[in-house]
Amino acid sequence: MDFSWNPEHQNFRQEVRAFIEREWIAPGYGRVGGEESGGGPAATYQKALAQHGWLTMAWPKQYGGGGASYWEQLIFAEESAFASAPTGGQGADRVGPTLMIHGTEEQKREHLPKIAAGEVVWCQGFSEPGSGSDLASLQTRAVRDGDDFVINGQKIWTSGADHAQWIHVLTRTDPEAPKHRGITYFMLRMDTPGISLRPIVQMHDEAGFNETFFEDVRVPAKNMIGDENRGWYVAATALDFERSGINRMAEAVAPFQRLLAHAQQPDSAGEGRRIADHGLHRLALADTHLEMEIARLLGYRVTWMQDRHLVPNMESSMSKMAGSELQQRSARRGINMLGLAGALRPGQARAPLGGEFCVLYLSTVSRTIAAGTSEIQRNIIATRGLGLPRG
Ligand SMILES: Cc1cc2nc3c(=O)[nH]c(=O)nc-3n(C[C@H](O)[C@H](O)[C@H](O)COP(=O)(O)OP(=O)(O)OC[C@H]3O[C@@H](n4cnc5c(N)ncnc54)[C@H](O)[C@@H]3O)c2cc1C
Fold it and tell me: What is the count of structural domains for the chain?
């Protein structure tokens, strides 16, 4: 196994770094943080990415993509996460790729160029109050009425619905069929009459989460992705795209490096002690470094498989779990090392590292839930990976 990057990859990494420095860091856009972005600086930056051909760099050229290799895509995702810069969002990373496989020619013509140009923001209406891990039990109903379907029901945890123009949504169209076989997948405009939102503020004070209500919402049948009652199998493609990616692990890197540098500075109380002088903290920093390397290699393995046209499955779950659990543990260790002051928030006087670890401690709780919980990833590893029986 060759662990080194070739000169083209190294040059490409430099090119990506220069772009991010110029378009994201220099304008002082700050940190988006997390997987979701949209609105404000993120939208401006995504337009710049689109103009540069990088918003959908890995898409085939025929669909407005850049035809980049999986490795180039990984380098781009990794560098973006190091700098907390947004990438393509849901349109680029899952809606477009899913349409390429399952969409009609008309759907591809309508949606792919707009996604590649960064003109439209998408959100995902899958989870419901009673259906998360067991997503196939979803209850939002769609009933055919002539050339339309009429949707009634409720979604929850719809990230970015407050600034999205389109939603891709799973509905139940055959309540009599076994649960996986009665689901149909639609896409519709967020300004369709009958859609309303109720925002949910997360515990780290960030908005962007929503409950999404559908009341007699009409969607044309031609907006169905895949066949009627076969939406579950199409959505599985979208979920695979959502789970793969190096970003979770890579988002932990820059905060860790800042913590490491801080740990070697004498404390501000003037007693001259450093966090790094404390034996347990030194061990915790070493643990984080080790876990980061493991998560990085698990992420690279997913790309290595894709590059060889193999389909990662258990490997994506391992990478997703390692990356998201690393984010949590790293934040938890950081806040412990920083002591009581670590709980101070950004903007508060004497907050170490600008309050970054307080925010990370709160915001990373959701990382092992989003895109399928750690328990669900472990189930996938146990059953599909190790051949163990289902519980
Ligand atoms: C940051 C974030 C962003 C999100 N964005 C979106 C979005 O844009 N669109 C969207 O549709 N959804 C979104 N979600 C929802 C997410 O997909 C669900 O929260 C997730 O699938 C878990 O479902 P749940 O919350 O209903 O928990 P539940 O499924 O009720 O799980 C509760 C607990 O039970 C455990 N559990 C459940 N089943 C099993 C099992 N079979 N074996 C072992 N343990 C089990 C779970 O691991 C968990 O610990 C988002 C969530 C988060 C945190």
Answer: 3
